[in-house]
Amino acid sequence: MITRLLFFFLMISSLSVHAGGGINPAAIVGMPSNTSQEKADDEPVERLNLTQPRITIKQFIKAMDRVADGDNSAIEHAVSTFDLSDVSPLIRTERGRETARLLYNIMQITKTPKLSEIPQKPKTKQYTYLRTDKGDIVLQPDEQGDWLFSPESIEAIPDIFNDLSHNKELLKKSSAKVSLPISVRLRSDIPDFLKSGFLLEYWQWIGLFLIIVIGSIADKTLAFLLKLRIKRRKHHDALYTELDDDVLRPIGLMAMALMWWSGLNLLGLPDTALLILLVAVKILVSISGIWSAFRLVDIFNAYWTVRVSKTQTKYDDLLVPMITKSMKVFVVVMGIVFAADNLNIDVTSLLAGLGLGGLAFALAAKDLLGNFFGSLTVLMDRPFHIGDWVVIGDVEGMVEEVGFRSTRIRTFYNSLVTMPNSILTTTKIDNMGARRYRRMLTKLAVTYDTPPEKIEGFCEGIRRIIQLHPYMRKDNYQVYFNDYGADSLDILLYVFWATPDWNTELRERHRFLLDVLRLARQMEVEFAFPTQTLYLKRGENGVPKASPYSPAMSQEEAFAKGHAEAESIVGQTLGDRIPGPVEFPR
Fold first, then answer.
1. Which residues cross the membrane (predicted)?
2. What are phi and psi of 26, to 5 degrees?
3. Domain span at residue 505?
4. Is 371 part of any domain?
5. What letter does residue 116 receive in the DSSP assignment?
Protein backbone atom coordinates (compact mmCIF):
# COMPACT_ATOMS: atom_id res chain seq x y z
CA MET A 1 0.00 0.00 0.00
CA ILE A 2 2.69 2.49 1.01
CA THR A 3 4.83 1.64 -2.03
CA ARG A 4 1.94 2.11 -4.41
CA LEU A 5 0.97 5.44 -2.86
CA LEU A 6 4.54 6.74 -3.03
CA PHE A 7 4.84 5.59 -6.65
CA PHE A 8 1.56 7.30 -7.52
CA PHE A 9 2.70 10.53 -5.87
CA LEU A 10 6.07 10.51 -7.61
CA MET A 11 4.42 9.76 -10.96
CA ILE A 12 2.07 12.74 -10.64
CA SER A 13 4.89 14.99 -9.43
CA SER A 14 7.08 14.02 -12.37
CA LEU A 15 4.37 15.22 -14.74
CA SER A 16 4.57 18.67 -13.20
CA VAL A 17 8.19 19.50 -13.84
CA HIS A 18 9.97 20.31 -17.06
CA ALA A 19 12.35 22.97 -18.23
CA GLY A 20 11.01 26.40 -17.55
CA GLY A 21 8.41 25.26 -15.07
CA GLY A 22 5.71 24.10 -17.49
CA ILE A 23 3.58 20.97 -17.55
CA ASN A 24 3.08 18.23 -20.06
CA PRO A 25 -0.57 18.38 -21.16
CA ALA A 26 -0.36 15.18 -23.16
CA ALA A 27 0.69 13.20 -20.14
CA ILE A 28 -2.50 14.28 -18.36
CA VAL A 29 -5.20 14.52 -21.01
CA GLY A 30 -3.86 11.74 -23.22
CA MET A 31 -3.58 13.57 -26.56
CA PRO A 32 -0.66 14.50 -28.82
CA SER A 33 1.31 17.34 -27.34
CA ASN A 34 3.36 19.97 -29.05
CA THR A 35 4.95 21.04 -25.78
CA SER A 36 5.79 17.59 -24.45
CA GLN A 37 8.62 16.99 -22.05
CA GLU A 38 11.73 15.79 -23.81
CA LYS A 39 15.01 14.47 -22.49
CA ALA A 40 16.89 17.53 -23.63
CA ASP A 41 14.63 19.91 -21.71
CA ASP A 42 16.74 19.59 -18.62
CA GLU A 43 19.95 20.35 -20.53
CA PRO A 44 21.13 23.82 -21.55
CA VAL A 45 20.43 24.68 -25.18
CA GLU A 46 23.57 24.95 -27.28
CA ARG A 47 24.29 28.54 -28.23
CA LEU A 48 23.80 29.00 -32.00
CA ASN A 49 25.70 31.23 -34.34
CA LEU A 50 23.16 33.98 -35.10
CA THR A 51 25.43 36.74 -36.32
CA GLN A 52 23.45 37.30 -39.56
CA PRO A 53 19.72 37.41 -40.42
CA ARG A 54 20.21 34.69 -43.03
CA ILE A 55 21.91 32.41 -40.52
CA THR A 56 19.15 33.00 -37.93
CA ILE A 57 16.35 32.10 -40.34
CA LYS A 58 18.33 29.12 -41.62
CA GLN A 59 18.88 27.85 -38.10
CA PHE A 60 15.18 28.27 -37.30
CA ILE A 61 14.03 26.37 -40.41
CA LYS A 62 16.64 23.66 -39.81
CA ALA A 63 15.51 23.16 -36.22
CA MET A 64 11.81 23.03 -37.16
CA ASP A 65 12.57 20.56 -39.96
CA ARG A 66 14.08 18.30 -37.29
CA VAL A 67 10.90 18.72 -35.25
CA ALA A 68 8.92 17.69 -38.34
CA ASP A 69 11.06 14.56 -38.52
CA GLY A 70 10.15 13.66 -34.94
CA ASP A 71 12.97 15.27 -32.96
CA ASN A 72 10.85 17.39 -30.60
CA SER A 73 13.90 18.46 -28.58
CA ALA A 74 15.07 20.56 -31.55
CA ILE A 75 12.28 23.07 -30.90
CA GLU A 76 14.46 24.58 -28.17
CA HIS A 77 16.99 25.59 -30.84
CA ALA A 78 14.18 27.21 -32.81
CA VAL A 79 13.00 29.11 -29.73
CA SER A 80 16.53 30.38 -29.16
CA THR A 81 16.15 32.52 -32.30
CA PHE A 82 13.39 34.57 -30.59
CA ASP A 83 13.81 37.65 -28.44
CA LEU A 84 11.40 36.75 -25.61
CA SER A 85 12.51 39.49 -23.26
CA ASP A 86 9.01 41.05 -23.24
CA VAL A 87 7.36 37.74 -22.29
CA SER A 88 7.03 36.88 -18.61
CA PRO A 89 9.49 34.17 -17.53
CA LEU A 90 6.54 32.21 -16.07
CA ILE A 91 5.07 31.58 -19.53
CA ARG A 92 8.16 32.08 -21.68
CA THR A 93 8.67 28.39 -22.44
CA GLU A 94 5.04 27.81 -23.50
CA ARG A 95 4.89 30.99 -25.54
CA GLY A 96 8.21 30.29 -27.25
CA ARG A 97 7.26 26.79 -28.36
CA GLU A 98 3.81 27.83 -29.51
CA THR A 99 5.22 30.79 -31.46
CA ALA A 100 7.84 28.58 -33.14
CA ARG A 101 5.15 26.25 -34.49
CA LEU A 102 3.01 29.16 -35.66
CA LEU A 103 5.93 30.89 -37.41
CA TYR A 104 6.95 27.67 -39.15
CA ASN A 105 3.40 27.20 -40.43
CA ILE A 106 3.29 30.83 -41.53
CA MET A 107 6.39 30.10 -43.63
CA GLN A 108 4.52 27.18 -45.18
CA ILE A 109 1.38 29.22 -45.94
CA THR A 110 2.90 32.46 -47.27
CA LYS A 111 5.49 33.25 -49.84
CA THR A 112 8.60 34.18 -47.90
CA PRO A 113 12.02 35.19 -49.26
CA LYS A 114 14.46 32.47 -50.16
CA LEU A 115 17.55 32.15 -48.00
CA SER A 116 19.72 33.41 -50.85
CA GLU A 117 17.62 36.59 -51.02
CA ILE A 118 18.17 37.43 -47.37
CA PRO A 119 21.10 39.82 -46.94
CA GLN A 120 24.04 38.66 -44.90
CA LYS A 121 24.90 42.15 -43.65
CA PRO A 122 21.85 44.45 -43.71
CA LYS A 123 22.57 48.13 -44.06
CA THR A 124 20.03 48.97 -41.38
CA LYS A 125 19.75 47.67 -37.80
CA GLN A 126 16.76 45.52 -38.63
CA TYR A 127 15.60 43.24 -41.39
CA THR A 128 11.91 42.80 -42.29
CA TYR A 129 11.39 39.19 -43.24
CA LEU A 130 7.64 39.37 -43.93
CA ARG A 131 5.10 42.20 -44.20
CA THR A 132 1.39 41.59 -43.51
CA ASP A 133 -1.69 43.61 -42.66
CA LYS A 134 -1.60 42.34 -39.08
CA GLY A 135 2.04 43.19 -38.54
CA ASP A 136 5.58 42.57 -39.74
CA ILE A 137 8.02 39.84 -38.90
CA VAL A 138 11.29 41.58 -38.20
CA LEU A 139 14.77 40.49 -37.13
CA GLN A 140 17.09 42.81 -35.24
CA PRO A 141 20.36 42.39 -33.31
CA ASP A 142 20.38 42.18 -29.53
CA GLU A 143 23.03 43.48 -27.13
CA GLN A 144 25.32 40.52 -27.89
CA GLY A 145 25.05 41.10 -31.65
CA ASP A 146 22.81 38.09 -32.35
CA TRP A 147 20.03 38.62 -34.91
CA LEU A 148 16.74 37.53 -33.35
CA PHE A 149 13.05 37.78 -34.20
CA SER A 150 12.01 40.99 -32.43
CA PRO A 151 9.59 41.13 -29.43
CA GLU A 152 7.09 42.99 -31.60
CA SER A 153 7.20 40.19 -34.14
CA ILE A 154 6.70 37.56 -31.43
CA GLU A 155 3.59 39.43 -30.29
CA ALA A 156 2.24 39.79 -33.84
CA ILE A 157 2.80 36.19 -35.03
CA PRO A 158 -0.48 34.77 -33.51
CA ASP A 159 -2.54 37.54 -35.18
CA ILE A 160 -0.68 37.05 -38.46
CA PHE A 161 -1.39 33.32 -38.36
CA ASN A 162 -5.09 33.83 -37.51
CA ASP A 163 -5.41 36.23 -40.45
CA LEU A 164 -3.77 33.75 -42.82
CA SER A 165 -5.53 30.62 -41.58
CA HIS A 166 -8.98 31.31 -43.07
CA ASN A 167 -8.25 28.69 -45.75
CA LYS A 168 -8.69 25.44 -43.84
CA GLU A 169 -7.41 23.25 -46.64
CA LEU A 170 -4.22 25.27 -46.82
CA LEU A 171 -4.03 25.17 -43.02
CA LYS A 172 -4.33 21.38 -42.91
CA LYS A 173 -1.70 21.06 -45.59
CA SER A 174 0.76 23.26 -43.70
CA SER A 175 0.16 21.62 -40.33
CA ALA A 176 0.69 18.14 -41.72
CA LYS A 177 4.44 18.73 -41.48
CA VAL A 178 4.62 20.30 -37.98
CA SER A 179 1.50 20.01 -35.86
CA LEU A 180 -0.07 23.25 -34.72
CA PRO A 181 -0.60 24.04 -31.00
CA ILE A 182 -3.72 22.42 -29.63
CA SER A 183 -5.28 25.81 -28.93
CA VAL A 184 -4.92 26.77 -32.59
CA ARG A 185 -6.44 23.50 -33.80
CA LEU A 186 -9.33 23.91 -31.37
CA ARG A 187 -9.96 27.47 -32.47
CA SER A 188 -9.97 26.46 -36.13
CA ASP A 189 -12.96 24.17 -35.46
CA ILE A 190 -14.86 26.70 -33.31
CA PRO A 191 -17.80 28.55 -34.93
CA ASP A 192 -17.09 32.17 -35.75
CA PHE A 193 -19.71 33.53 -33.34
CA LEU A 194 -17.74 32.04 -30.41
CA LYS A 195 -14.54 33.78 -31.45
CA SER A 196 -15.63 37.16 -30.10
CA GLY A 197 -16.22 38.16 -26.53
CA PHE A 198 -15.19 40.31 -23.57
CA LEU A 199 -11.59 40.01 -22.29
CA LEU A 200 -11.54 36.43 -23.60
CA GLU A 201 -13.27 34.81 -26.53
CA TYR A 202 -16.49 32.99 -25.73
CA TRP A 203 -15.05 29.57 -26.50
CA GLN A 204 -12.19 30.28 -24.08
CA TRP A 205 -14.68 31.17 -21.32
CA ILE A 206 -16.51 27.91 -22.01
CA GLY A 207 -13.19 26.05 -21.99
CA LEU A 208 -12.24 27.55 -18.61
CA PHE A 209 -15.60 26.50 -17.18
CA LEU A 210 -15.22 22.93 -18.48
CA ILE A 211 -11.66 22.70 -17.13
CA ILE A 212 -12.80 23.82 -13.68
CA VAL A 213 -15.68 21.32 -13.72
CA ILE A 214 -13.51 18.42 -14.92
CA GLY A 215 -10.80 19.23 -12.36
CA SER A 216 -13.35 19.43 -9.55
CA ILE A 217 -14.89 16.10 -10.58
CA ALA A 218 -11.43 14.51 -10.67
CA ASP A 219 -10.71 15.93 -7.21
CA LYS A 220 -13.91 14.58 -5.65
CA THR A 221 -13.63 11.22 -7.41
CA LEU A 222 -10.01 10.62 -6.49
CA ALA A 223 -10.58 11.80 -2.90
CA PHE A 224 -13.55 9.41 -2.57
CA LEU A 225 -11.60 6.45 -3.98
CA LEU A 226 -8.60 7.13 -1.73
CA LYS A 227 -10.85 7.51 1.30
CA LEU A 228 -12.53 4.21 0.47
CA ARG A 229 -9.13 2.59 0.05
CA ILE A 230 -7.95 3.83 3.45
CA LYS A 231 -11.14 2.58 5.12
CA ARG A 232 -10.66 -0.89 3.65
CA ARG A 233 -7.02 -0.91 4.63
CA LYS A 234 -7.89 0.11 8.22
CA HIS A 235 -10.47 -2.67 8.36
CA HIS A 236 -7.98 -5.35 7.28
CA ASP A 237 -4.74 -4.03 8.77
CA ALA A 238 -4.36 -2.81 12.36
CA LEU A 239 -1.28 -0.78 11.35
CA TYR A 240 -3.48 1.99 9.93
CA THR A 241 -6.14 2.25 12.62
CA GLU A 242 -4.76 5.57 13.92
CA LEU A 243 -4.98 7.26 10.50
CA ASP A 244 -7.78 9.61 9.51
CA ASP A 245 -9.97 8.48 6.61
CA ASP A 246 -9.17 11.70 4.69
CA VAL A 247 -5.40 11.38 5.13
CA LEU A 248 -4.89 11.32 1.32
CA ARG A 249 -7.31 14.16 0.57
CA PRO A 250 -4.53 16.52 -0.68
CA ILE A 251 -3.73 14.14 -3.56
CA GLY A 252 -7.16 14.92 -5.01
CA LEU A 253 -6.42 18.64 -4.80
CA MET A 254 -3.11 18.11 -6.54
CA ALA A 255 -4.77 16.12 -9.35
CA MET A 256 -7.31 18.94 -9.79
CA ALA A 257 -4.55 21.57 -9.90
CA LEU A 258 -2.56 19.55 -12.44
CA MET A 259 -5.60 19.24 -14.69
CA TRP A 260 -6.19 22.98 -14.45
CA TRP A 261 -2.53 23.58 -15.28
CA SER A 262 -2.65 21.38 -18.35
CA GLY A 263 -6.00 22.81 -19.46
CA LEU A 264 -4.81 26.41 -19.35
CA ASN A 265 -2.16 25.59 -21.94
CA LEU A 266 -4.83 24.25 -24.31
CA LEU A 267 -6.91 27.43 -24.59
CA GLY A 268 -4.42 29.87 -26.12
CA LEU A 269 -5.19 32.53 -23.53
CA PRO A 270 -3.71 36.03 -23.79
CA ASP A 271 -0.45 36.54 -21.96
CA THR A 272 -1.97 38.57 -19.11
CA ALA A 273 -4.79 36.11 -18.42
CA LEU A 274 -2.50 33.10 -18.77
CA LEU A 275 0.07 34.65 -16.44
CA ILE A 276 -2.46 35.38 -13.67
CA LEU A 277 -4.16 32.01 -13.86
CA LEU A 278 -0.94 30.05 -14.27
CA VAL A 279 0.68 31.64 -11.22
CA ALA A 280 -2.38 30.80 -9.12
CA VAL A 281 -2.45 27.20 -10.37
CA LYS A 282 1.29 26.71 -9.87
CA ILE A 283 0.99 27.91 -6.27
CA LEU A 284 -1.91 25.50 -5.75
CA VAL A 285 0.12 22.64 -7.24
CA SER A 286 3.06 23.44 -4.97
CA ILE A 287 0.93 23.67 -1.81
CA SER A 288 -1.06 20.53 -2.58
CA GLY A 289 2.14 18.66 -3.51
CA ILE A 290 3.82 19.52 -0.19
CA TRP A 291 0.62 18.70 1.68
CA SER A 292 0.29 15.36 -0.12
CA ALA A 293 3.89 14.47 0.64
CA PHE A 294 3.33 15.34 4.31
CA ARG A 295 0.34 13.00 4.45
CA LEU A 296 2.33 10.19 2.83
CA VAL A 297 5.02 10.69 5.45
CA ASP A 298 2.30 10.43 8.12
CA ILE A 299 1.26 7.08 6.64
CA PHE A 300 4.88 5.96 6.71
CA ASN A 301 5.15 7.04 10.34
CA ALA A 302 1.92 5.28 11.37
CA TYR A 303 2.97 2.07 9.62
CA TRP A 304 6.44 1.86 11.15
CA THR A 305 5.43 3.15 14.59
CA VAL A 306 3.16 0.17 15.04
CA ARG A 307 5.77 -2.18 13.63
CA VAL A 308 8.57 -1.01 15.94
CA SER A 309 6.30 -1.08 18.97
CA LYS A 310 6.27 -4.87 18.63
CA THR A 311 10.06 -5.19 18.69
CA GLN A 312 12.18 -5.71 21.80
CA THR A 313 14.78 -3.03 21.05
CA LYS A 314 14.06 0.62 21.83
CA TYR A 315 16.48 2.02 19.27
CA ASP A 316 13.91 1.87 16.48
CA ASP A 317 11.44 3.76 18.71
CA LEU A 318 13.90 6.65 18.59
CA LEU A 319 14.88 6.19 14.95
CA VAL A 320 11.43 6.20 13.32
CA PRO A 321 10.36 9.66 14.64
CA MET A 322 13.69 11.16 13.57
CA ILE A 323 13.39 9.65 10.07
CA THR A 324 9.84 10.97 9.85
CA LYS A 325 10.93 14.48 10.78
CA SER A 326 13.85 14.29 8.35
CA MET A 327 11.48 13.32 5.56
CA LYS A 328 9.18 16.24 6.40
CA VAL A 329 12.11 18.67 6.37
CA PHE A 330 13.17 17.23 3.01
CA VAL A 331 9.62 17.59 1.68
CA VAL A 332 9.47 21.26 2.74
CA VAL A 333 12.87 22.05 1.19
CA MET A 334 12.07 20.28 -2.07
CA GLY A 335 8.62 21.89 -2.11
CA ILE A 336 10.13 25.35 -1.79
CA VAL A 337 12.64 24.61 -4.54
CA PHE A 338 9.87 23.18 -6.75
CA ALA A 339 7.61 26.19 -6.17
CA ALA A 340 10.46 28.64 -6.75
CA ASP A 341 11.40 26.85 -9.97
CA ASN A 342 7.80 26.92 -11.24
CA LEU A 343 7.57 30.63 -10.44
CA ASN A 344 11.00 31.28 -12.00
CA ILE A 345 12.46 32.57 -8.74
CA ASP A 346 16.23 32.24 -8.41
CA VAL A 347 16.58 30.85 -4.89
CA THR A 348 20.37 31.23 -4.93
CA SER A 349 20.20 34.90 -5.83
CA LEU A 350 17.49 35.43 -3.24
CA LEU A 351 19.64 33.99 -0.47
CA ALA A 352 22.70 35.87 -1.70
CA GLY A 353 20.73 39.10 -1.54
CA LEU A 354 20.17 38.70 2.19
CA GLY A 355 23.46 40.43 2.95
CA LEU A 356 22.10 42.56 5.78
CA GLY A 357 20.69 39.50 7.50
CA GLY A 358 23.86 37.45 7.03
CA LEU A 359 25.17 38.01 10.54
CA ALA A 360 21.85 37.17 12.18
CA PHE A 361 21.55 34.07 10.01
CA ALA A 362 25.05 32.95 11.01
CA LEU A 363 24.27 33.38 14.72
CA ALA A 364 21.02 31.49 14.32
CA ALA A 365 22.79 28.77 12.35
CA LYS A 366 25.21 28.28 15.26
CA ASP A 367 22.42 27.16 17.59
CA LEU A 368 20.78 25.26 14.75
CA LEU A 369 23.93 23.28 14.03
CA GLY A 370 24.50 22.71 17.75
CA ASN A 371 21.04 21.23 18.11
CA PHE A 372 21.49 19.18 14.95
CA PHE A 373 24.75 17.62 16.16
CA GLY A 374 23.12 17.03 19.52
CA SER A 375 20.42 14.99 17.81
CA LEU A 376 23.12 13.06 15.92
CA THR A 377 24.80 12.36 19.26
CA VAL A 378 21.58 10.89 20.61
CA LEU A 379 21.11 8.88 17.43
CA MET A 380 24.64 7.46 17.23
CA ASP A 381 25.74 7.18 20.87
CA ARG A 382 22.26 6.24 22.10
CA PRO A 383 22.65 7.58 25.66
CA PHE A 384 18.92 6.99 26.16
CA HIS A 385 15.82 5.72 24.39
CA ILE A 386 12.19 6.72 24.30
CA GLY A 387 10.64 5.89 27.70
CA ASP A 388 13.93 5.88 29.65
CA TRP A 389 14.16 7.53 33.06
CA VAL A 390 16.98 10.07 32.79
CA VAL A 391 18.58 12.79 34.87
CA ILE A 392 20.07 15.58 32.72
CA GLY A 393 21.36 18.47 34.79
CA ASP A 394 18.53 19.45 37.10
CA VAL A 395 15.87 17.81 34.91
CA GLU A 396 14.62 14.35 35.83
CA GLY A 397 11.88 12.42 34.08
CA MET A 398 10.91 10.08 31.25
CA VAL A 399 12.08 10.71 27.67
CA GLU A 400 8.95 11.34 25.61
CA GLU A 401 10.20 12.61 22.24
CA VAL A 402 13.52 13.31 20.50
CA GLY A 403 13.58 15.75 17.58
CA PHE A 404 16.22 17.52 15.53
CA ARG A 405 16.08 20.67 17.63
CA SER A 406 15.01 19.53 21.07
CA THR A 407 14.25 16.62 23.38
CA ARG A 408 11.05 16.54 25.45
CA ILE A 409 11.13 15.03 28.95
CA ARG A 410 8.02 14.34 31.00
CA THR A 411 8.90 15.00 34.63
CA PHE A 412 7.42 13.13 37.58
CA TYR A 413 5.31 16.23 38.26
CA ASN A 414 3.75 15.55 34.82
CA SER A 415 5.20 18.76 33.40
CA LEU A 416 6.88 18.71 29.98
CA VAL A 417 10.43 20.06 29.75
CA THR A 418 11.78 20.95 26.30
CA MET A 419 15.57 20.75 26.26
CA PRO A 420 17.74 21.94 23.30
CA ASN A 421 19.76 19.07 21.88
CA SER A 422 22.95 21.15 21.96
CA ILE A 423 22.97 20.68 25.76
CA LEU A 424 23.23 16.91 25.30
CA THR A 425 26.75 17.19 23.85
CA THR A 426 28.18 18.88 26.95
CA THR A 427 25.97 17.79 29.87
CA LYS A 428 26.28 14.62 31.93
CA ILE A 429 23.39 12.26 31.21
CA ASP A 430 22.43 9.82 33.96
CA ASN A 431 20.25 7.15 32.39
CA MET A 432 18.38 5.60 35.27
CA GLY A 433 16.40 3.47 32.86
CA ALA A 434 19.57 1.75 31.62
CA ARG A 435 20.35 0.23 35.02
CA ARG A 436 20.79 -3.54 34.92
CA TYR A 437 19.93 -3.76 38.64
CA ARG A 438 18.06 -1.54 41.06
CA ARG A 439 19.73 -1.31 44.48
CA MET A 440 18.43 -0.96 48.01
CA LEU A 441 20.80 -0.12 50.88
CA THR A 442 19.38 0.14 54.38
CA LYS A 443 19.93 -0.96 58.00
CA LEU A 444 17.56 -2.98 60.13
CA ALA A 445 17.79 -1.76 63.75
CA VAL A 446 16.92 -4.43 66.36
CA THR A 447 16.83 -3.99 70.12
CA TYR A 448 19.88 -4.51 72.26
CA ASP A 449 18.26 -7.36 74.17
CA THR A 450 18.06 -9.52 71.03
CA PRO A 451 20.15 -12.69 71.57
CA PRO A 452 23.07 -13.25 69.17
CA GLU A 453 21.65 -16.61 68.07
CA LYS A 454 18.38 -14.96 67.11
CA ILE A 455 20.24 -12.31 65.09
CA GLU A 456 22.11 -15.13 63.25
CA GLY A 457 18.83 -16.91 62.47
CA PHE A 458 17.13 -13.67 61.43
CA CYS A 459 19.95 -12.77 59.00
CA GLU A 460 19.91 -16.27 57.48
CA GLY A 461 16.13 -16.11 57.09
CA ILE A 462 16.47 -12.84 55.14
CA ARG A 463 19.07 -14.46 52.88
CA ARG A 464 16.63 -17.28 52.15
CA ILE A 465 13.88 -14.80 51.27
CA ILE A 466 16.29 -13.16 48.79
CA GLN A 467 16.95 -16.54 47.17
CA LEU A 468 13.24 -17.27 46.84
CA HIS A 469 12.12 -13.93 45.36
CA PRO A 470 12.21 -14.21 41.53
CA TYR A 471 13.31 -10.67 40.66
CA MET A 472 16.08 -10.35 43.24
CA ARG A 473 19.72 -10.70 42.29
CA LYS A 474 21.08 -14.03 43.57
CA ASP A 475 24.78 -13.50 42.96
CA ASN A 476 25.34 -10.36 45.00
CA TYR A 477 23.60 -9.48 48.27
CA GLN A 478 24.79 -8.65 51.78
CA VAL A 479 22.90 -9.34 55.05
CA TYR A 480 25.16 -8.97 58.12
CA PHE A 481 25.14 -7.60 61.67
CA ASN A 482 27.05 -4.45 60.88
CA ASP A 483 27.10 -1.86 63.64
CA TYR A 484 26.35 -0.97 67.27
CA GLY A 485 24.04 1.97 67.09
CA ALA A 486 23.24 4.44 69.83
CA ASP A 487 20.01 2.66 70.61
CA SER A 488 20.01 -0.46 68.39
CA LEU A 489 21.96 -3.32 66.90
CA ASP A 490 22.19 -2.54 63.15
CA ILE A 491 21.91 -5.21 60.44
CA LEU A 492 23.19 -4.16 57.00
CA LEU A 493 20.76 -5.00 54.17
CA TYR A 494 22.26 -4.56 50.68
CA VAL A 495 20.22 -6.12 47.84
CA PHE A 496 19.42 -5.69 44.11
CA TRP A 497 16.43 -6.25 41.82
CA ALA A 498 16.61 -7.08 38.12
CA THR A 499 13.36 -5.41 37.08
CA PRO A 500 12.50 -3.87 33.69
CA ASP A 501 10.93 -0.69 35.05
CA TRP A 502 10.33 1.39 38.14
CA ASN A 503 6.80 0.11 38.73
CA THR A 504 7.99 -3.48 38.92
CA GLU A 505 10.79 -2.41 41.25
CA LEU A 506 8.34 -0.78 43.65
CA ARG A 507 6.14 -3.84 43.66
CA GLU A 508 9.03 -6.24 44.35
CA ARG A 509 10.51 -3.96 47.01
CA HIS A 510 7.09 -3.91 48.68
CA ARG A 511 6.85 -7.72 48.66
CA PHE A 512 10.38 -8.14 50.00
CA LEU A 513 10.02 -5.70 52.89
CA LEU A 514 6.72 -7.23 53.92
CA ASP A 515 8.28 -10.70 53.94
CA VAL A 516 11.15 -9.43 56.12
CA LEU A 517 8.60 -7.91 58.51
CA ARG A 518 6.67 -11.20 58.67
CA LEU A 519 9.92 -13.08 59.36
CA ALA A 520 10.77 -10.70 62.23
CA ARG A 521 7.40 -11.21 63.84
CA GLN A 522 7.56 -15.00 63.56
CA MET A 523 11.06 -15.05 65.07
CA GLU A 524 10.04 -12.48 67.72
CA VAL A 525 12.72 -10.05 66.65
CA GLU A 526 11.88 -6.55 67.79
CA PHE A 527 12.91 -3.47 65.86
CA ALA A 528 14.41 -0.72 68.00
CA PHE A 529 13.05 2.77 68.39
CA PRO A 530 15.25 5.82 68.99
CA THR A 531 15.00 5.66 72.82
CA GLN A 532 17.01 6.39 75.93
CA THR A 533 16.91 4.11 79.00
CA LEU A 534 17.40 5.49 82.52
CA TYR A 535 18.77 2.81 84.85
CA LEU A 536 18.45 3.31 88.63
CA LYS A 537 20.57 0.99 90.76
CA ARG A 538 19.49 0.22 94.29
CA GLY A 539 21.31 -1.54 97.10
CA GLU A 540 21.67 -5.29 96.77
CA ASN A 541 19.74 -7.55 99.13
CA GLY A 542 21.21 -10.82 100.07
CA VAL A 543 24.57 -12.32 99.17
CA PRO A 544 26.30 -10.60 96.26
CA LYS A 545 26.89 -12.68 93.17
CA ALA A 546 30.38 -14.04 92.81
CA SER A 547 32.38 -12.51 89.95
CA PRO A 548 35.23 -14.20 88.07
CA TYR A 549 37.07 -10.91 88.26
CA SER A 550 38.33 -9.36 91.50
CA PRO A 551 40.23 -6.15 92.29
CA ALA A 552 43.20 -8.21 93.46
CA MET A 553 43.55 -9.88 90.02
CA SER A 554 46.70 -8.94 88.15
CA GLN A 555 46.75 -7.67 84.56
CA GLU A 556 48.20 -10.92 83.26
CA GLU A 557 45.44 -12.88 84.96
CA ALA A 558 42.77 -10.57 83.47
CA PHE A 559 44.27 -10.99 79.97
CA ALA A 560 44.37 -14.74 80.35
CA LYS A 561 40.74 -14.81 81.46
CA GLY A 562 39.69 -12.67 78.43
CA HIS A 563 41.65 -14.85 76.02
CA ALA A 564 40.04 -18.00 77.43
CA GLU A 565 36.53 -16.56 77.06
CA ALA A 566 37.23 -15.36 73.47
CA GLU A 567 38.71 -18.72 72.44
CA SER A 568 35.65 -20.46 73.86
CA ILE A 569 33.23 -18.26 71.88
CA VAL A 570 35.16 -18.46 68.61
CA GLY A 571 35.59 -22.17 69.05
CA GLN A 572 31.85 -22.55 69.27
CA THR A 573 31.06 -20.28 66.27
CA LEU A 574 34.01 -21.05 63.98
CA GLY A 575 36.01 -24.01 65.24
CA ASP A 576 39.23 -24.89 63.51
CA ARG A 577 38.06 -24.03 59.97
CA ILE A 578 39.14 -20.91 58.07
CA PRO A 579 36.23 -19.47 56.03
CA GLY A 580 36.97 -18.64 52.40
CA PRO A 581 35.48 -15.80 50.30
CA VAL A 582 31.75 -15.34 50.33
CA GLU A 583 30.00 -17.59 47.83
CA PHE A 584 26.34 -17.29 46.98
CA PRO A 585 24.12 -20.38 46.67
CA ARG A 586 23.43 -21.45 43.12
1. 202-226, 247-267, 273-297, 318-339, 345-365
2. -60, -35
3. 438-523
4. yes
5. G
